[in-house]
Amino acid sequence: MEQLTNAGEILRSTQSEEPLTQGAENLAGLTDPSSSWARLTETQLDPVTLRRHHIRTAKAGDQSAPFDRLRTRLLSHMRMAGHRRIAVTAPTEQCGSSTVVANLALSLARQEDLRVMVLDLNLRKPNLIHLFGLQEAGPRFSVLTGHRRNFDSTCLRIGANLGLSLNATAMEDATERLAHAKTYALLEHIERDFAPDLMLMDLAALSPRDDAIAGLTLADCALLVARADQSSKAEIDAAERTIAENTACLGVVLNACRFSHATESHPHG
Known about the structure:
Number of domains: 1
Number of strands: 10
Mean pLDDT: 82
Structural class: alpha/beta
Number of helices: 11
Strand content: 15-25%
CATH class: Alpha Beta
Strand order of the largest sheet: 1-2-10-9-4-8-5-7-6-3
Oligomer: single chain
């Protein structure tokens, strides 16, 4: 089992799944996604801010290695299963799932052959815009309005292959927005016009509200982030069951785990 410094370790791996072809079929008519990416507003991230927020994957090195290993495992599994949309959630709040999303996003983006789109769907308590050290420059919840023009004008681009659709304002009607048909339609627009190899969706915790459940139905699969000094086995097991009821569970990342032998790996089934 591999230890993830400052991020934990994978506890469980999923059973093998049949490859899916729906994503490839939806993208069959795509001609030039590079023009769509070029429309996005390019911005840069401040290395000092990233380090202060424990984002350590902008460059390859010892500190990025645990997330790089997680990235490689996720890509291998998702390619075999034909998945494109991955949600990241937690059993309860304050487990560090947004930090895992941010580190995974930059680790994935270092592979120049990948196009990665990050969506902050933790609408009640958005945090990615803070972790990335970006300032609000217009509405950042356009991913949920169902309007292509709004998404294209507010989604930010880091380099040539990382898109960030972030929120700066908390929204109380989170579940209703996530469950709206326009949200699903806009995700299809993103896949059709931008052809991301992977869409990384940061969700709220599974407890105490049901926002994350609505978000899980939008994903092909999900990763659960638990915290070693906070999450109980009962909470983790309940969260895994909830994920499995709504999408495929990739596994569990145990955050704030100091010793690699502190937990064991158990397959589903």
